[in-house]
Amino acid sequence: METTTLDGPPRLAPRYLRALLPSRGGGTELPDRELVLPGAPVDPAELDAYRRMCGFGLDGRVPVTYPQVLAFAAQVTLMTEPGFPLRLPGLVHLRQRITQLRPVAADEPLGLRVHAEALRAHAKGAQVDLVGSAEVDGEPVWAARSTYLARGATAPPAAADEPDEPVPVPADPARQAARWRVPADTGRRYASVSGDVNPIHLHPLTARLFGFPGAIAHGMWTAARCLATLEGRLPEAYEVDVVFGRPVVLPADVALFSAPDGDGGWRLTLRAAEADRVHLSASVVPSGGARR
Hints:
- The protein is of the alpha+beta class.
- The chain is 19% helix and 34% strand.
- The protein contains six helices and eleven strands.
- It has an eleven-stranded mixed β-sheet with strand order 1-2-4-5-6-3-8-11-10-9-7, covered by helices on one side.
- Strand 5 (125-136) and strand 6 form a beta hairpin.
């Protein structure tokens, strides 16, 4: 696999504009290339803004979802290069799996690697995995797999079955852990701290151009906001599996249901507060534990 080292995090706004060009997308194979962002300290102000946006405390550690924010710009770079088989506009984030091998201190230099793999068919089109990893001075500390769907696209059959999805927590009042009003400007505020300026999150008009009824919350914001409720109750090393359901159309009222699962594990389900809609289901499993 060819390795390309980037000078710094790519700017996402020009990449989204480039993705709108009609010549983008339509190849038949994934790039055999890995993008590398060399180890650099995390910006303290940007990290604190992210923590506040997602509900994490100021504990001196990098939240488990934050390296994905740093890796996302490199993912978009891969997905907007000529010949990438799926067009970025309209891609749907289906699933996010993260492994934290150990906590990362906020002042540790974090190096990132990203590549694409597993282009395969889906019942509604084609899906692909963007794989990321993070290291501190050569030590692996974090890994993730982001699965995206391109509706209506074609791809070879999947080589293996997809892993089992997390079992949703029932909408039992005794299991309700939190309830939030998600304001209309949530997408714009999260974009300002994450750099993800995908137009489907920024304004109802631009979201409707891509088939959404209104601006929708970022999937990674909803995942982070839910995981923040478990802060202080998780082991040092664990695996997170998030499956995204119906998008959170802004503004919205949502309710989080949680349940302990096994030895130190948890299940989380975010639902519409007043309707039978599941926005996401997640499991958190200590490393080495069995997924239920």
